[in-house]
Design a protein that fits this description.
alpha/beta; 2 domains; TIM Barrel; about 300 residues
Length: about 300
């Protein structure tokens, strides 16, 4: 069983690297990737042998780079890149987590004031080093029933992910905020991964608004993605089957993971998601041996 989509306290996860490795060891993962948002600091920490030895399985370098497509915020997963090269690209192209949260706060605040959303700035409290400003905004504006009229999807009122994906990131929502100024372009994000020696996958296609799934073929045809994340905690079997078939038709690679965030994302358990995941090594056989030549199943290279 593998899980190549997980997060630590270096971005918005609640688990330290040691805690994540201990959980991976406990559940018997054979392959793990830490894909923190816009940072690879976890992988530099993994160079400490005392930390690395907590997990017997293989670890491949990973990152989740935030970008935009047609004004909507999406993510690209990168694997197998050179750490030093990627770090230089991040230094030149990507805001730190803290910088991004502070700038995003200003964008959301100004936009919501403009359209008449009711909120008290004094009640919006978050630590920009480790916490999302969107979460803080969601808590505050939901306090006022008068704001419910702004929600495109009423279910978004109940969950942070719904508020983010269906409202803040969705150009069709009155609560949409254009955040393209905060991130590298989709083309640039993919280029950063490729020029660092890695491969690029579109993350969790069906976790975005329907705009992105409807545009999937256009994205594949117009951008140099290497693969798609076909297995994910919230995907139905039909959705995964569709992506697997699409990868076969387009000659693209497959990946998958839980999007583990520790206690900060419910029912995204490492390895198993909400109980629906058990990703076999065979799904990544087309590319994993290139980046981890010693990775094997039952002491043999994946065939």
């Amino acid at each position: 069983m593998i899980d190549i989509h997980s997060h630590t306290t270096y971005s918005d996860g609640s688990s330290s690297i040691e805690e994540l490795l201990e959980e991976a060891q406990k559940i018997g993962l054979s392959l793990l990737s830490i894909t923190d948002h816009n940072t690879i600091q976890a992988h530099f920490e993994l160079q400490n042998s005392n930390i690395r030895k907590k997990f017997d399985g293989e670890i491949i370098s990973g990152i989740e780079i935030t970008t935009t497509y047609n004004g909507e915020t999406i993510e690209v997963l990168g694997y197998g890149f050179d750490l030093e090269q990627m770090q230089q690209f991040l230094n030149d192209n990507v805001l730190t987590f803290k910088e991004k949260q502070l700038r995003e706060y200003e964008l959301i605040k100004n936009q919501y004031k403009k359209i008449g959303v009711i909120f008290d700035e004094n009640n919006i409290k978050f630590n920009p080093k480790v916490e999302s400003c969107r979460h803080a905004f969601a808590i505050e504006i939901k306090r006022y029933p008068q704001n419910y009229k702004f929600f495109l999807n009423k279910e978004s009122i109940n969950t942070d992910s719904g508020f983010t994906r269906n409202e803040v990131y969705n150009p069709k929502s009155p609560l949409y905020v254009d955040e393209s100024s905060l991130f590298p372009s989709l083309e640039r994000a993919i280029e950063m991964i490729h020029k660092s020696g890695g491969i690029a996958f579109l993350a969790h296609t069906f976790a975005y608004s329907p705009n992105i799934s409807n545009e999937l073929l256009n994205i594949i045809n117009n951008y140099e993605l290497d693969g798609l994340e076909c297995f994910y905690t919230t995907f139905t079997k039909e959705q995964s089957d569709y992506l697997v078939k699409l990868c076969a038709e387009k000659g693209m690679y497959m990946s998958g993971g839980s999007d583990f965030h520790g206690t900060r994302k419910k029912n995204h358990n490492l390895g198993t998601g909400s109980g629906n995941l058990c990703i076999d090594e065979s799904f990544i056989k087309d590319w994993i041996n290139k980046y981890l030549p010693d990775f094997n199943s039952s002491k043999e290279k994946i065939k």
